[in-house]
Design goal:
Chain A: Pfam families: DUF5682. The complex is a heterodimer. By secondary structure, chain A is α/β, with parallel strands linked by helices. In chain A, 57% of the residues lie in helices and 7% in strands. In chain A, helix 13 packs across helix 17, helix 22 runs antiparallel to helix 23 and helix 31 packs across helix 32. The termini of chain A are far apart. In chain B, a hairpin with a 4-residue loop joins strand 8 and strand 9. Chain B is globular. The chains are: A alpha/beta, B alpha/beta.
Chain lengths: 795, 380
């Protein structure tokens, strides 16, 4: 029994996730040896608490409560290795001491939260650090605005002690304090301080706390009846005075009357340090879980051990850090702490010291320390025997409502996205794919339709997919929320620009509008910093494609359009310098990029500012006319301009004449020809119809020196062999007839049977209106002038 | 005062009226602020390291400013993050050498002078680093007349400021450390690690007395000049002095400095100039930090420093242009060429960065049309 202590339960007021509190709790429990341990937390978890002793349970983990039918309404109670609650639970389980959770049941707190949802009674911020734990939602976030209205007990105490930062005060007074003689003294002192605060501020603006504390008092009394006086209570320090207060049982019961209730399920879910670091969830978000874990885990000399850890990290990253550095960093940190009047070097001092001594004043390596050590990559584990996660339930519900059964047998599914159910099915499958749950894989349609409103999936449910679902439970409680969180995390961690664009595309397919802003921001940032025009050019078409998908599905794609426009702008600026000094392979690749960008810009012009197409043409013009640009690209650019009707009469011939003039090396000229008329882009017809160009090619070819001819032959063969046989024959006939013959292609040889030898101008003109209608060129202006080129444009 | 701006001539101490060497054009920090130092020393009851005039806490107060219990107001000498001054002072207290890094115009020299004045009461033990700084400037030289007349002895030896600081337990200062040739730099290694300076000619050595320390300043953008060897670097704790935190502060510095220079060059003061200065400062800050001021668009950073000092010179030359060839009002066309010169240092890579910036940011911005046009004209 509690040696040397008065009557009544042993009240251990703590801060959630405080390593110093956790140590103190362990010491106090060891010293008193209570018959039962009561922990602030939802009593529904009593049935699950035994799992905490399971070997495969590795913190950080979280207790998750959610409304049975609505997995989206949920609350988390995260527990790290250094959480006082976790320490108390493990202490009790190891000694077969009963553990009870005594906070207001989640059934009530979740129902209450729904009630005052408009007031957003979620995250409790600093207050939560000391006192709060229960009614804090997993989907919190907008609670921060409320905070200002409430009393922050820590800030008041810290202010009294002359600290401007409450967190630092708490660390100095509680977390960093070494083991003292009396295991109970710190709790008594803190309890008194909190008592004084509560006298001054009452519930401090936390109306709900009174209800919770009434419930806790009742639970403590019940436990005392069952186990005698020797019970220990681990709760937020804020609640200690309230639990100590003598109140009438009837008054407590009256407070609890008529509380709303929902049906709630509980389970354990794995947690991560990164999520502990977020202020959402428990409300007791901490900035530096890794540092706290270290403080809790280090047996002695925490600063020395921390610096050694940091040095190890740097060495692993090939940064030279000697033992002398470690020594100096420790000295600096400790002197800094002394100068700032702190009992022990805290995270601020160690970070300053690491920056000055090990990082040469730079913040870049320091961010590595923050990411890997201060926050850390620790991932918790939960035994398989834990109840199913709500994500699984949400999935089951969706499967039922969409009539999409998980079957082991592989089958194909045709979806018509114009139908509502099919569209929802497609979204579900896309979201699951984002979560790494490969139930359905997109397949090529058997019907061979290519319409954007049609999708074909191959469905195949394997047992291990259930495991994947459980793993994905970390991301959220519903498929939508989980997929959104996952997409955002993927975007931030993506390696290349192309990954991000692909992700953007998938976000649109899976209809995750909430994830899009993050993905777009990452995309814009990546594009801004990527110096390789090739990457940008690769990303642009996918983005434009996404825009079109978005249009089909009626998603708001304005942000996407802006990013695409910005990307196009960067490509325009970066392309000319990137096209110089390329070897043959790189030039061929770049030509592909030019083509892709050209197609993408064509699609962009519709909604972007009218200037895009015009600027692209001027970029093409620059490329076509610049000698240092590889021949194949120059040729291609000239051709694209010609097709778009941007070259004045005779300009194409002039460019070709320049490229094929004797001053140019035969290989370079052949590459130009390849770019201009090669690659299955209807170049053959162009030559058939523009005899001037053909004559130029012909003249150049006959002028190629014999020894150079064998060099250019493969390239020429590649260019011309892809032409259709008919075109090749016509070309051949044209060339055989010789360049001297004048006239157009129409005058060639005898007319085929059934056709007049010449063109019937009147009948030909009659077709033009329909043709214009089909091509969408209302103003017949330019089209009339150069019918040859227009024909090619159609081809 | 706020962050001072270094250019060729160091800016004058902001409070020259506080007695001391009243006749000097620019009194030393320990003279100009003698009253403040004395007040601090009188009320400072915290432990002082050996031979320190003030406790580390009082030194930090001297630099950051504050009010003493008896009501004496200490003016802030450095406006910037508190953390930086604390780390710097603590470094000196742990007898590690201090290296102040920063781009031009971040008050490195200013901070080092005041640190030395507050710690040792003497900021004059100074070695100015140049490409021609010889070893004698750091170790010792000889009085050749004496050397020839009496042979080698301590009397014939001319001590360097560093040697004097060692033997007297004072703070030595080395300015522009990276401009000093690498082999000369390395003579500091023994001094900093062994705290001794051997004099092989006499078979003697000078051992540093407690209280000796060294503050070096270096420009962290032109590291390439004479990068510190890793052996030397290891002996310093490094503190990077940041650029002015807000655009407002930087505009303030630029316009004040431009005003000073302009007056000495008899340039007309441009009343509507601040808008243009704000624009230049914005451009410099955005390109330097790689993100637009609204924090929404990332940018590539060019290879140039784009320091506050460069912004000042762009504005000054723009003013000169407008005064002599324009209508006397600072216009976008007057500064466009200057900005281009400051931004585009590497003709290939930087030009693309600049054009991207023009097209992606400047073109869309309200009220920047004429600036965009002016920049386009000079960029082509």
């Amino acid at each position: 029994m509690s040696a040397g202590r008065g009557r009544g339960p042993l009240l251990l007021g703590v801060r959630h996730h405080g390593p110093g509190s956790a140590r103190a709790v362990r010491a106090a429990l060891d010293a008193s040896g209570p018959g039962a341990v009561l922990v602030e937390g939802p009593p529904e978890a009593d049935a699950l608490v035994a799992l905490a002793a399971d070997e495969s349970m590795v913190p950080p983990v979280a207790l998750l409560a959610h409304v049975v039918d609505e997995p989206g309404r949920s609350a988390f109670w995260p527990l790290a290795e250094f959480s006082p609650e976790w320490v108390a639970i493990r202490w009790a389980l190891e000694r077969d001491v009963p553990v009870r959770f005594i906070d207001l049941p989640a059934a009530h707190s979740l129902a209450l939260r729904e009630q005052d949802a408009p007031e957003a009674d979620t995250g409790d911020g600093n207050v939560g650090n000391v006192g709060d734990g229960g009614d804090v939602g997993g989907d919190g976030g907008d609670g921060a605005r409320e905070l200002a209205l409430r009393v922050d007990p820590l800030a008041v105490l810290a202010g009294t002690a002359g600290y401007d930062d409450p967190e630092r005060w708490w660390e100095d007074v509680v977390e960093h304090r070494g083991a003292s003689g009396d295991a109970f003294a710190p709790f008594e002192a803190l309890g008194e301080a909190m008592g004084a605060l509560r006298e001054e501020y009452g519930d401090g603006g936390h109306g709900r706390d009174l209800v919770r504390e009434a419930y806790m008092r009742l639970q403590v009394r019940a436990a005392q009846r069952e186990f005698g006086d020797g019970v220990a209570v681990v709760c937020g320090a804020w609640h200690v005075p309230a639990l100590r207060a003598k109140t009438a049982v009837a008054a407590d019961r009256a407070l609890l009357k008529g509380l709303p209730k929902v049906k709630v399920d509980m389970t354990w879910v794995p947690w991560t340090h990164r999520r502990l670091a977020r202020a959402s969830g428990y409300g007791a978000g901490i900035d530096s879980p890794g540092w706290y874990g270290h403080l809790f885990g280090a047996p002695d000399r925490p600063v020395e051990r921390w610096m050694t850890k940091v040095a190890g990290l740097f060495r692993g990253e090939d940064r030279i850090v000697s033992s002398a550095h470690v020594i100096e960093a420790v000295r600096l940190a400790e002197t800094l702490a002394a100068m700032r009047g702190r009992p022990l070097a805290g995270l601020t001092e160690t970070t300053d010291a690491i920056r000055a001594v090990m990082c040469e004043g730079s913040d870049v390596p320091l961010s590595l320390v923050h990411d890997r050590l201060v926050v850390g990559d620790v991932l918790g584990e939960v035994p398989d025997t834990a109840p199913a996660v709500p994500l699984q339930r949400d999935l089951t519900r969706l499967q039922r409502s969409l009539r999409l059964k998980p079957e082991a047998l592989e089958r194909e599914l045709e979806l018509d996205l114009r139908k509502e159910t099919d569209a929802a099915r497609s979204r579900l499958l896309h979201r699951l794919r984002l979560l790494g749950i490969g139930w359905g894989e997109p397949a090529r349609s058997a019907r061979g339709t290519t319409g954007t409103f049609r999708e074909t999936w191959r469905l195949h449910w394997e047992p291990e997919l259930s495991v994947r679902v459980a793993e994905a439970g970390v991301w959220g409680t519903t498929v939508l929320a989980a997929a959104t969180a996952r997409a955002e995390a993927d975007a931030t961690g993506a390696q290349t620009l192309a990954d991000v664009t692909a992700l953007a595309e998938r976000c649109l397919l899976a209809e995750l509008p909430d994830a899009l802003p993050v993905v777009m921001q990452v995309l814009a940032d990546r594009a801004a910093l990527d110096a390789d025009v090739g990457h940008l050019a690769q990303a642009l078409p996918a983005l434009v494609r996404s825009l079109r998908y978005g249009d089909v599905r009626g998603t708001d794609t304005r942000a996407l359009g802006e990013v695409a426009a910005g990307l196009a702008e960067r490509v325009f600026v970066g392309l000319p310098p990137a096209c110089t000094g390329l070897d043959a392979d790189a030039a061929a690749e770049m030509r592909g990029h030019v083509d892709a960008v050209h197609a993408a810009v064509g699609l962009l012009a519709g909604d972007g500012p009218a200037g895009h197409r015009g600027r692209w043409h001027s970029v093409l013009g620059v490329l076509a006319g610049r000698d240092s640009v590889a021949g194949v690209i120059r040729g291609r650019c000239a051709r694209l301009l010609l097709d778009d009707g941007q070259l004045a009469e005779g300009e194409a011939a002039r460019l070709m004449g320049l490229a094929l003039s004797p001053g140019t090396g035969p290989a370079e000229a052949a590459a130009w020809i390849e770019g201009f008329v090669g690659g299955g882009s209807g170049g053959g017809l162009l030559l058939v119809h523009d005899e001037r160009l053909l004559a130029l090619v012909d003249g150049w070819l006959t002028g190629v020196p014999a020894d150079a001819f064998t060099d250019v032959l493969p390239l020429l063969r590649r260019t011309f062999s892809v032409y259709e046989p008919g075109v090749r024959r016509t070309l051949g006939e044209l060339v055989r007839r010789g360049p001297s013959a004048a006239g157009s292609a129409a005058a060639l040889g005898a007319a085929p049977a059934g056709f007049a030898p010449g063109l019937d101008q009147g009948r030909a003109d009659a077709v033009l209106p329909v043709l214009r209608l089909l091509l969408g060129t209302d103003d017949g202006g330019p089209a009339g002038g150069r019918d040859d080129n227009d024909l090619v444009g159609v081809a | 005062m706020t962050v001072s701006v270094e250019t060729t001539e160091k800016s004058a101490a902001p409070a020259g009226e506080q007695g001391g060497a009243a006749q000097a054009l620019r009194p030393h920090a320990e003279d100009a602020f003698a009253a403040e130092l004395a007040a601090l020393a009188a009320q400072d009851d915290r432990p002082r390291p050996a031979r320190w005039r003030l406790s580390p806490w009082a030194v930090a107060t001297y630099l950051l400013g504050g009010e003493l219990p008896d009501g004496t107001v200490i003016t802030p000498k450095y406006v910037g993050p508190r953390r930086i001054v604390e780390v710097a002072v603590t470094t000196l207290a742990t007898d590690r050498a201090l290296l102040l890094l920063g781009v031009p115009g971040t008050a490195k020299t200013w901070v080092s002078e005041h640190l030395a004045a507050a710690v040792s009461g003497d900021s004059t033990l100074l070695v100015q680093g140049t490409a021609g700084t010889p070893e004698e400037a750091i170790r010792y030289g000889w009085n050749y007349a004496r050397l020839l007349a009496h042979g080698p002895s301590r009397d014939a030896l001319v001590p360097s400021p560093v040697m004097r600081a060692m033997s007297e337990g004072m703070t030595a200062r080395v300015e522009e450390l990276t401009r000093i040739p690498a082999d000369v730099q390395d003579t500091l290694i023994t001094i900093l690690s062994e705290k001794t300076l051997p004099i092989p000619e006499l078979g003697q050595e000078v051992q540093a007395v407690r209280g000796f320390n060294l503050i070096a300043t270096a420009n962290d953008r032109d590291r390439g000049v004479n990068d510190l060897s890793s052996a030397l670097r290891r002996r310093f704790n490094t503190v990077v002095l940041p650029l002015p935190e807000s655009a407002e502060a930087e505009v303030d510095i630029v316009s004040r400095r431009v005003d000073q220079i302009g007056r000495s060059l008899d340039l007309p003061a441009a009343p509507e100039g601040t808008d243009e200065i704000r624009r230049i400062v914005t451009v410099f800050r955005e390109l330097r930090s790689g993100v637009t001021e609204d924090g929404r668009t990332k940018l590539k950073s060019p290879s140039g420093t784009l320091s506050t000092a460069e912004a000042i010179s762009v504005v000054t030359s723009g003013l000169a242009l407008s005064a002599h060839f324009g209508d006397g009002v600072l216009r976008p066309s007057d500064v466009a060429a200057g900005i281009l010169g400051a931004v585009v240092r590497d003709p290939a890579a930087d030009r693309v960065i600049w054009q991207e910036y023009l097209e992606a940011v400047v073109r869309e911005r309200d009220g920047w049309k004429d600036f965009y046009r002016a920049c386009r004209e000079v960029s082509v």
